[in-house]
Amino acid sequence: MQYTFRTIERAERAARCLPFRLDLFEAMRQQGVPLKAVVGEQGVRKRYTKTPLAELAAEDDLSWLIRVGVLRREVDGQGITDAFRLTPLGHRLVEKWQCTGKIEAPTLPQRLLDLLNRWLS
Known about the structure:
Elements: H1 5-16, H2 22-30, E1 33-34, H3 35-38, H4 40-45, H5 55-67, E2 71-76, E3 79-86, H6 88-100, H7 108-120
Antiparallel strand pairs: 1-3, 2-3
Helix pairs in contact: 2-6
């Protein structure tokens, strides 16, 4: 699938500005990860997050990644679940990050641009 440079750049910037670790995205490559696995101390223990996140904050951050095209909600026979999976764009970003073994920290201008994008969307 083809993505514009701006689409890839925006998606990567969004992911880099959030408190998630590469381990979370690698887990999402294999299966859906439920929201409960990401929140609180469990998220830190599993190396999904850098710091404990409240459920509302985690859901808001994951929803932002849905809006920029990195994630999607997992669907089962009964409808949408509380689990998240990578989209093809998300897979592409994770492959890039796996080459370095980490998600690069964003610069201050990248953080400000992401904040502006979130606020305007």
